[in-house]
Amino acid sequence: MGGITLEDMTAAGALLEGHFKLSSGRHSSRYLQCALYLADPTRAEAAGRQLAARLKNAAAQLVVAPALGGVIIGHEVARALEDVPFFFTERADGVMKLRRGFRIEPGCRVLVVEDVVTTGGSTREVMDVVAREGGVVVGVGAMVNRSGQENPFAPLPFTALLTVDVPNYEPETCPLCASGVPLTKPGSRPDKKS
Ligand code: ZN
Fold it and tell me: How remote is the CA of residue 35 from the centroid of ligand 1, in Å?
């Protein structure tokens, strides 16, 4: 299935250039704002359909994604899988949790969906929540893989619609910090200092 290209992201205004603080805490000169890509419901639906097609063999019974980034794409993947519900996790007091009455049946086959995988940290937190609730993670899907690894979740099946190789840095060794470029935390106003 086709996937998404950087040109598609650029056309959607979703490829931002500058100096960004990623959710992992690392810095990068490029940021993919998936929310802008997903702002078009037709594009969101198509992306969900592609991910669902690639992960159909996992025979998932439930899709779980982390709020807020994973909610739209996770929902669209569940829709495309047909008769598969969609839950989301959210952070409360810094801890990833299932709230709002979402319950996972023991042994339920769960597909975890993300917008962007960078370190895979938040995805692993969702996987831990699923395991803690008695579910079984059977695969991971993402819109964008910027982890630098083909499959950061091996041996689980993993697929991403777009793989990008964008360098990112620890703040201490970030060349953009060194040259004094103002840092932006995507989705918010620029940070004064970080
Ligand atoms: Zn920096």
Answer: 23
User: What's the fold here for domain 6-178?
Assistant: Rossmann fold (3.40.50)
- For the stretch 177-190, pLDDT in tens is 999 999 998 764 44
Strands in 136-145's sheet, in edge-to-edge order, are: 95-98, 86-92, 62-66, 109-117, 136-145, 158-163
Kindly report, residue by residue over 101-133, the tens digit of the pLDDT: 999 999 999 999 999 998 888 999 999 999 999
Distance 178 CA to ligand 1 centre (A): 7
CA 165 / ligand 1 centre spacing (Å) = 17
Q: What is the value of pTM for the model shown?
A: 0.87
Q: Which residue has the tokens 């935390």?
A: 185
Whole-number Å distance, alpha carbon 13 to ligand 1 midpoint, is 22
The domain ranges of the chain are: 6-178
CA of 36 to the centre of ligand 1 (A): 23
